[in-house]
Amino acid sequence: TRTLEAIQYTRGNLQILNQLALPHETIFEPVINVQDGHAAIKTMKTRGAPAIAIVAALSLAVDAYARLEKNEFKTVEETKEFLLSSLEYLKTSRPTAVNLFDTAAKFTALVDKVQGEAKEPKDLVQPIIEAAEKMLIDDVQDNKNIGKHGAEYIVNNVRDKSNISVLTHCNTGSLATAGWGTALGIVRDLHRNNQLKHAFCTETRPYNQGSRLTAYELVYESIPSTLICDSMASALLRLNPSVQAIIVGADRVAANGDTANKIGTYQLAITAKHHGILFVVAAPSTSIDLSMESGKEIVIEERPANELVTTTGVLLDNNQSTAVRTAAQGINVWNPSFDVTPSELISAIVTEKGVAVKQPGLNEFDLKSFLS
Ligand SMILES: CSC[C@H]1O[C@H](OP(=O)(O)O)[C@H](O)[C@@H]1O
Predict the structure, then answer these.
(1) Cβ(48) to ligand 1 under 6 A?
(2) Site annotated as Transition state stabilizer: where (predicted)?
(3) Which of 137, 251, 264, 309 has the highest count of CB atoms within 10 angstroms of its CB?
(4) pLDDT, tens only, 157-207
(5) How far, in Å, CA of 324 to CA of 350, rounded?
C-alpha cells in the first residue's frame, strides 16, 4: 500500500500538504520561493524535523530555478549572496530541529566549494537544486533503514516477541518526512513483518499531531491501532502488558544522547522507566547534533498561546477545518513545543546507520564514536 506524502516536487515546482487542515481536508499549496517555504514551516503547515529541512531546501531550489529561468542573476557573486542569505533566512523559521541547520551548513559549504570554478550563475544554482532533490531520495532510504534496524532491535529486546504492542507520540511518519517515517517507520516494519500486535498513539496536545496525523496514517494503512489522550499513557502501560516499547522521534539529539522531541516525550520516558519497558528514539543521523555535548544547550521553541487555548483542525458543519477556543479567556499559557529526555531514560537510538546503545553501566551514549 502507498503511504501518504506531504511533499510533491518536480524541478521548478513544489507543493506542500497543508497539515493544519488534516485529517479533514487534503489541501496541497504551492511553494514558489523561500518566503513561502519559511511561512509553511513557521505556521506548521509543514512540520517534522526531516520534512522541515527538505521543504526549506526545495523552496530554495524552486526560488533559484525561477530566478535563473528569468535571468535575474547578473553575476556569480550576486547568485552566491542570494543563496547564502536565503539559507540564513530559512534558519529563522523554527529553532529546535537540527536538520534544517544541518542542511543550511551543508548547502553553504557546497556554495563555497563550487564558487571557485563558477563561470556563470547556473554553475552555483544547479548543484544546490541537485543537492535539494537528493534529500528527497536519501530521506526515504534513511527511514527504510531506520525501520529495519528499529524493528530488529525491538523484537530482539522485548520480553515476549509474540506479543508486541507499541506506543508512539506525535507524528513521525510520512507526514513528517519524505516518506515511510522514523518512529512510525519502525511501526510500519513491525506491521509488515507480522510482528506487531497493536500500535497505540497519543493525541499529542496541543497541536494534535497524533490524533490528526499519526492516526490518519495508521488508519490509511489499516495498521491495528488505538488513539489515547496523552494523560492515559501510564494507565495503558500498567493495564496492558503487551505494550513493551515506546517509540518516538527526535528533533535534536545531543552527543551524549539527550533528545529534544515533542513536548510530552520526557514524561513518556519516565513512565517507560517506571514500567520497565523499552524507550526507543528513532532519527536519521541528520538529527544528531554532535556540536552539542548535552541537551542542556538545546533551544526549546515556544509556540503562540492561541495554539494551546484552541483545538486545531476542528471540523465545522460546512466541512471546513478551523480552530475552536477551549480555554478560559485571560488564562496565562506556557506552550513549549518540545522537551528534552535525558540519555539515562533512553534504551536505544535507532538511526539509518544502526542502533546506538549505552555501554553497560554508563548513563550516556557516545554518539561521536557511534557515527565516526
Ligand atoms: C520525524 S519528525 C521528528 C519530530 O518533529 C515533530 O515536531 P513538530 O511536529 O513540532 O515539527 C515531533 O517532535 C517529531 O518527533
Answers:
(1) yes
(2) 170
(3) 251
(4) 999 999 999 999 999 999 999 999 999 999 999 999 999 999 999 999 999
(5) 38
Task: Supply φ then ψ for residue 312, to 5 degrees.
Answer: -65, 150
Alpha helices in 221-326 (DSSP H): 233-239, 265-275, 306-309
Cell numbers standing for residue 105: 551548513
- Expressed in angstroms and rounded, the spacing between residue 140 Cα and the centre of ligand 1 is 16
124 grid coordinates: 552555483
> Does the beta carbon of 19 sit less than 6 angstroms from any atom of ligand 1?
no
Q: Whose CA is nearest to atom 12 of ligand 1?
A: 262
User: What is residue 161's predicted lDDT score, i.e. its pLDDT?
Assistant: 97
Instruction: Please answer whether residues 236 and 167 qualify as being in contact, where contact means their C-beta atoms are separated by less than 8 angstroms.
Output: yes
- Cβ–ligand 1 contact at 213 (below 6 Å): no
At 36-49, the pLDDT tens digits run 999 999 999 999 99
Catalytic site positions: 251
Secondary structure letter of residue 302 according to DSSP = B
The model scores a pTM over 0.90: yes
Task: Please enumerate in sequence order all residues whose Cβ is within 8 A of that of 40, keeping only pairs 6 or more positions apart, or say none.
Answer: 16, 29, 31, 46, 55, 59
Q: What is the DSSP-derived secondary structure letter of residue 290?
A: T
CA-closest candidate to residue 353, choices 284, 257, 281, 298: 284
Cβ-based neighbour number of residue 235 at 10 Å:
12
